[in-house]
Amino acid sequence: MSRLVTLSDAELVQHCRAGDPGAWNELVERYSRYVYAIAIRGFRLSDEDAEDVFQDVFTRVYTRLDSLRDDSALRPWIAQLTRRRCLDALVSKGREVPAEEVYSVDESTDLAEVEEAFTVREALAGLSESCQDILDRFFTRDQSYRTISNELDLPSGTIASRIARCLGRLRDQLEGRNDASEGSRK
Amino acid sequence: MTGSYDQERLGVLLRALRPAPLGWVRAAQELPSARRTIDEIVARAEADLAFREALITNLEQALAVEGYEPDRRILDELRDRLTER
Fold this sequence. Notes:
The structure holds 2 protein chains of 2 kinds. Chain A folds into 2 domains: 3-123, RNA polymerase sigma factor, region 2, helix turn helix motif (Rna Polymerase Sigma Factor, Chain: A, Orthogonal Bundle), CATH 1.10.1740; 125-186, Arc Repressor Mutant, subunit A, CATH 1.10.10.
C-alpha cells in the first residue's frame, strides 16, 4: 500500500501543492468514485455529460488547489464543484432546473446516499487489504463467488462467509468498534 | 448517517460508489503532464509567430507536424488559450 493512501486529505493537498508526483494520482483515486457517483447517481447525467463534468472537476481542483482555504475541506469543496458543474450540464442541455433544486441538492436522497457511501468507503480503507479486496470485487465490480474464488484462489464455499465476516468488521469500524489490528486511514 | 448498518444496508452503500471508468481516471491523473504540454505549446506560440499562425490555421495538423498527439480536451483548451488574446 502506498504511503500516500494513509494521508489525511489536508496532508494530501499539501503534498499536491509541493509537486509530489504520486499525490495527485492518489487524490484522483480517492475522489474519482465520489465525483462519478454524484454525476451519475445524484444528477443522473448521461455518460457523455458525466465524463465532461468528471474531467472538468478534476481540472478545476488541480488548477485552483492554491485557492482552497482549509485543506481539510477538500471533500466538501469537490462536492460543491461537482454539483455546480452537474447543474451547468443540465442547464446547457436545455433541462429546466427549478430554483428549489439548485438550493436543495443537499437534501436529495441520492446525494445524501453518496455522502454516506463515501463515509463507508473511508471506513473500508481501515480494513485489511484482503477484506477491502473481496468487498470491492463483490459489491462494486459485481464479481460472482466463482470469479472471486478463481481470481483469489480461495475455496468457493468460503466466499460468502468471508464477505459476511468482512461486512461485520466494516460495521464495527463504522460504529467505532474497530479491532486494534485494523488500521485507519484518517 | 444512520448509525445502524446491517449487511443489506452496507451492500447498498458499497454499491453506490462504483469505480469510474478507468480511462476517465487515467485522463484526470495525467492532468499535470497535460497542463505542462499546453503551457509549453502556448509559450512556443508566443515566441514563434509562424508556429502560432500554423496553430490557428489548423491546430491538429500543426501539432502533429511537431510530434504532439493531444486529446480533445487539450485541443479545446489550446483553442481557447490561442484565441483569448
